[in-house]
Write the structure tokens for this entry.
Amino acid sequence: MTDSLAPAPAQPDRAALHALLRRMPKAELHIHIEGSLEPELIFRLAARNGVALAYPSVAALRAAYAFTDLQSFLDIYYAGAGVLLKEADFFDMAHAYFERAAADHVVHAELFFDPQTHTERGVPIEAVILGLARACRRAQAEFGISARLILCFLRHLSEEAAFATLEQALPWREHFVGVGLDSSERGHPPEKFARVFARAGALGLHRVAHAGEEGPPAYIEGALDVLQVERIDHGVRCIESPALVQRLAALRMPLTVCPLSNVKLRVYDTMAGHSLPALLQAGLCATVNSDDPAYFGGYVNDNYIAAFDALPQLGRDEAYRLARNSFEASFAPAADKARWTAQLDAVFASA
Ligand code: ADE
Ligand code: ZN
């Protein structure tokens, strides 16, 4: 048999890279827990709570997940969250996420939640916080995942509403470690929330904000200068400003990048055009995350694999760097970060 008739070689390097991406320990730092609500669970909770849905079936709901931009997604995302009424609903949603995260070798997760999405519908804030906090404790006990909560303000609402939400949440202060800023970005610059972020800082809460997803690089600068954030969520549009990239690199300011989200919401036309390799090349502390995994086609490992498959500049070294960055960028204690980094080193040493 001549060489030309031999079967095409398998791609052992690619298979090995996938295996490494899947099994390396990692932290997930940008996951909206309401965005982990799978259509099947939406239907189950709707039936349990007697909530009417606008779609006749799981398949019909899933078929509606064709987004043209951030707002077209948010409209469906807020409607889906309408099935969440009781403490047990929040627990069940987060527990389902942690099962998936454990399968993806997530050892630490920081979960965003949107209290205003629920309190506006009359759901008591304690049902939200206590259900999620119970799931976080269970994640540690059942999966060995350390989990923390970050309370997000909806930026399409007023700063007064954000203040009221923070005050409402304070009796349960021990259950969340920080505040964030999400929802419709354009037209709602960080400066709108200057005072409530200052108050959160005075309370000893960590501060993060979505910036530079659809909004311009100036929103990233505003988040740094006015909100005093410790991480930028998304931040990919920094690439349009070389001076800002330099500043972020010098600060080692983490960016929580969400590749599948960026393609689904048309921040990038294709994954092949994503800026993740350029961000790493510039020395930024970029991380990979899922954002809203039930809506965007996958959980954190799906994000790593989709990005690495489409971007030939990403290989083993970048896999290590991204996982390591995820620990560095987390709000976990230094001893935990060191332990997870040692676990990461052991996985790479044996692969
Ligand atoms: N809320 C849930 N997902 C979001 C995203 N990608 N951007 C802004 N707000 C969000
Ligand atoms: Zn997000």
